[in-house]
Each structure stands twice: as C-alpha cells, then as structure tokens.
Design a protein that fits this description.
By secondary structure, this protein is of the alpha/beta class. It is built from 17 helices and 22 strands. The chain has helices at residues 11-18, 34-37, 54-57, 78-83, 96-111, 114-122, 148-159, 173-178, 186-192, 212-216, 235-244, 282-302, 316-339, 361-372, 382-388, 461-471, 505-515; strands at residues 2-5, 24-26, 43-46, 65-68, 87-89, 140-144, 163-167, 182-183, 195-198, 222-226, 247-252, 271-273, 344-353, 392-398, 407-415, 418-427, 431-437, 440-445, 448-456, 475-483, 494-502, 521-529. The longest helix is centred in the middle third of the chain and has 24 residues, at 316-339. The mean pLDDT is 91. Catalyzes the reversible oxidation of 3-phospho-D-glycerate to 3-phosphonooxypyruvate, the first step of the phosphorylated L-serine biosynthesis pathway. Also catalyzes the reversible oxidation of 2-hydroxyglutarate to 2-oxoglutarate.
Length: 530
C-alpha cells in the first residue's frame, strides 16, 4: 500500500500509518511532483490547501480513498472521485470542542469589550469607565443547529448561567432536553435571543439565513456569532444592522470569500473578525489527523467505510437500476422535511413495486439524509446519524404498487406536532414526481424551487397566489393543485398547491414574506431541489 500525505500532518497521525510496516508513506516534505506520486498511490490525505480536481485524479489510476483532515470537502471533486470508485472521507466532530470554545470566547469578548480595552491600553489610554461590559449570566442564548458543535456550546453556556433556546428540526426533543435546550421555532430564536450562534451546514435553505428580514425581527442589541459557514449571513444586511444599532455586536470566524480581503465589515467597530480559527488548536488538529488516519487504514485493510461523503456500496449493474430511486428518495426526504414544521421524532418509509424487491439500504439512507438536510449527513452515514439523534426509522415493503406507477416510495414523518406524509415515483426518463401530500393527490415535479402551500379551499386563492408571485417579477414554471375529500384524517375544505418558480434565494425570501400576508393561505414554505 502507498499512502500520499499531500499536506503536513502531526507526528501522531504519521505514526498510525507507520504501524503497517509494509506500507509506503510519502510525506508532504518529500513530494516534488504530486501527480507523479499519485501514479501508484492507494490513498491520498489532504487538508484544505491541495485541490483534488478531476484532472488530478486522472493521474491516480489505483487510488481507492481520499481522506480530508477536516469537515469541508470543497477542495475535493467528490463527483469525479465517485465516478472513479474512490471513497472520499472527512472527519466531522473531531474539532467540535475547539469550535465550541472559540464560540464562547467570542461571546465573552463581545460582552466585556476586550478588543477595545486592549487597543486603548496599547495606545496609553486608561478608559475603564467607557468600557463597562455585561455578564452572560441570565442572558438568552439562541443556538441554530444542535449537532455536535451546537450541543458542546449548549453544555458550556449552561455553566455561565445562560438560558438556552435552540432551533434544529432534525434533533430529537429528548436530546435537546438532556442538554438543557428548549426547542423553539426559528422566529422565536430571532426574537428572543440576546446572543445568537450559528452551527449549521450550508444548504440552499440555510444560505442567507441572517438577512434583512430576519434581522428586522431580532431583539434590539442582539449579538451574533458565526463559526460555521460564511454563506449563512448576508453581509450587507448584517453590516447595516451593526451600524444602525439593531445588532449590538457580531463576531465572525468564517466568510463567503477566504482569505478575507474586501468586506463591508471593515471599519465597523462593533464587530470582531478572526481568520477561520475554529478548529485551529493543537488538540483539534491532532485529533482530526489521528481520526482520519484510523479511518483510511480501516478502509484499506478491511473495507470499513466511516464518514464517507460519496460512495454507495453497490455493483455497477445494481447502481444503474437503483440510482433514479436514490435520487428520488433524497428529493422526497428533502421536500417533506422542509415542507413540514415540527421536530422530527420518527419516520416510516414504505417501498412498493419493483424497488421493494431489491436492495433498499441506500434508498433508505437517501431518504434520511434528505429529511435531515444536514451537510454532514449522506447516504453512507445517514442511519448512524439518525440513531445518534434518537430518530427511529421503520421500513415496510410491498411487492405491488397501487395505481399505474411501477414503483412508489412513501415517506411519513412523525413529530409532536403531528404526522406528515408524501409519496412519489420516477417517470419515464428518470423524472422524479410527487404523487401525494398528506393524503391529498397532487402531482408535481420534485425539481427546482418549489413553494408548498396549505390553504383554505375558497375561491380566489389561486389567483391571489399568481398575482403576488407576478408582482415580484417571478416566473411560474409549474402549478399543481390538490383538494381534500371528507375523511377523519383530512378535514373538509383543505387544499394544497405546489408551485415551481424561477427565482433567486433572496427573491424567494421576499416572496414568502409577502405570501404569508394572504388571509386564505394557512402556510407556505420554500423547498429548494436541484
């Protein structure tokens, strides 16, 4: 076996690989031509600097695994790796404590005005009276995202005597309770927090989460921390909030473009900027390196796949047959997860028709990863993540599908707020299609930007929806309708619509804000599907 360590690693990381005496390990300081070294390599280990492109992989015909020491895999062409049968692994969670500690440190830094105090003393000024701070004790901390890092932050914030509220539709309520977090909706987070910290991955739904609309409903003087992804914040909106006093302070460790060279934040005195230091501790870097080395070694020796972000475990023939339904499962999970409020507790997945007779593990995992819509959940680790979050997954198979569809996938989500269900199929040409939502027949494409409406079945609603969308300069690509019939499960007079539109994320946010003002509309949610 040949292992290429394309970037510097800790001695402890190197030692893991060196436990195998027959393995050849090439370290970064010995590499003069990476392409040449990859010609006979079995494994490639990188951090964030080396760009693993499709072109680079053409020089690695034997490569079996790429290990990323860290979480983000933006520097790796995972699609190209998948096509070549290369597993791409990362190390989520190894830096959770480091990021959590930085988050609390930034909160304290804002509360006690430490940067200003330090600068004043360096300039020979003793400005004690003007630098009076505040305590974290008794303040409300809002945490968006209760994964590994979010929960580490919650545990530490409790020791400061903070009240903690959290938003994460994918965490089981019991996990939140055990960590002293009160689960609330996202608007309550914005309205009720003295401090707000972000710990979610980047998805179409989380991009621009902090924008002019969300800032407008926040508690005046709120302080915001972002150690997750720079794209979660609309920079111009936050800069405006900082300068007009709506936002009392901010501390950012991540940015849309890194390294940061130009920014609307430059010159604003109530914001702290740090150069992506979240995982930059000796302990975190060593833990990340050791974890990755152990994962890569386990895969090369035993075929054990841990924290993979890309590769399904199927033969080529099996994959060709099941691939459209893996895609459908991901879309259906994302659609129902985002179209339905409530904190998920359990889910039921039913397979009917041809798909029920084959391997369904990856279809199941694709459903789960779609529902959770989390950047560190994928078709390899979805079941483990669901178990970790206390979410029970029940499966059922039927040999024949009802109706004219050859195969039908049905998903039901259970939460304290109630149940939600949807069914879908794949039409000719591998087109993913919604068949029903909450027991109401409604056929719609599961692609693009979708607006999901629940409304009272009264005259004029369709026209009003179309008018509002048109007034915002947005084009409607597809408009699907469904109406309830009298039953115990679905009350009389309920209707639904799934509208496919063509709009930017910022325009969608404005549109949702306007549509929620229409009286007959009970709810409207946006779902972004590729």
């Amino acid at each position: 076996m040949k292992i290429v360590l394309a970037e510097k690693v800790s001695p402890a990381t190197l030692a893991v690989f060196q436990q195998e005496p027959s393995w050849k390990v090439v370290t970064a300081d010995k590499i003069t031509n990476l392409e040449a070294e990859l010609a006979d390599a079995d494994a490639l280990v990188v951090r964030s600097a080396v760009q693993v492109t499709a072109e680079l992989l053409e020089h690695a015909p034997k490569l079996r695994v790429i290990g990323r020491a860290g979480v983000g895999v933006d520097n790796i062409d995972a699609d190209a790796a998948t096509k070549r049968g290369i597993v791409v692994m990362n190390t989520p969670g190894a830096n959770a404590v480091a990021v959590a500690e930085l988050t609390l440190g930034l909160m304290i830094t804002m509360a006690r005005q430490i940067p200003k105090a330090n600068a004043a003393l360096h300039n020979g000024k003793w400005e004690k009276k003007s630098l009076q701070g505040t305590e974290l004790r008794g303040k409300t901390l809002g945490i968006v995202g209760l994964g590994r890092i979010g929960l580490e932050v919650a545990r530490r914030a409790r020791s400061f005597g903070m009240e903690i509220i959290g938003y994460d539709p994918f965490v089981a309520p019991v996990i939140a309770r055990e960590n002293g977090v009160t689960l609330v909706d996202i608007d309550t987070i914005f309205k009720g927090s003295d401090y707000l910290t972000l710990h979610v991955g980047l998805t179409p739904q989380t991009e621009g989460l902090i924008n002019k609309h969300s800032i407008a409903i926040m508690k005046k003087g709120i302080r915001i921390v972002n150690c997750a992804r720079g794209e979660l914040i609309m920079d111009e909106a936050l800069a405006e909030g900082l300068t007009n006093g709506t936002v009392g302070g901010a501390a950012l460790d991540v940015f849309r473009q890194e390294p940061l060279k130009e920014s609307p934040y430059f010159g604003i005195d109530n914001i702290i900027l740090t150069p992506h230091l979240g995982g930059s501790t000796d302990e975190a870097q060593e833990a990340i390196g050791i974890q990755l080395a152990e994962q890569v070694s386990a895969y090369l020796k035993d075929g054990v796949v841990q924290n993979a972000v890309n590769v399904p475990s199927l033969s080529r023939e099996e994959y060709v047959e099941v691939a459209p339904y893996i895609d459908l499962a991901q879309r259906l999970g994302t659609f129902l997860g985002l179209a339905t409020p409530g904190n998920l507790e359990n889910m039921d997945i039913a397979y009917a028709g041809r798909i029920a007779t084959g391997k369904t593990d990856l279809i199941r995992n694709a459903v789960i990863s779609g529902v959770l819509s989390d950047s560190d959940v994928n078709s390899i680790n979805a079941t483990a993540v669901a178990n970790e979050r206390g979410i029970r997954v029940q499966e059922d198979k039927k040999e024949f599908a009802s109706g004219g569809a050859g195969s039908v996938l049905k998903l039901t989500l259970h939460s304290a707020e109630g149940d939600a269900s949807a069914s879908a199929t794949v039409l000719h040409g591998n087109a993913p299609r919604l068949l029903s939502l909450d027991g109401i027949d409604i056929e719609a494409p599961l692609t693009g930007t979708l607006l999901v409406f629940r409304n009272h079945d009264v005259p004029g609603v369709i026209g009003r929806i179309g008018t509002v969308i048109g007034e915002h300069g947005v084009n409607i690509a597809n408009f699907a309708l469904g109406r309830s019939v009298r039953s115990q499960r679905v009350p009389q007079g309920q209707a639904m619509a799934v509208v496919q539109i063509e709009a930017t994320p910022e325009k969608v946010s404005e549109l949702i804000h306007a549509l929620r003002k229409v009286d007959a509309i009970a709810s409207v949610r946006a779902v972004e599907l590729s």
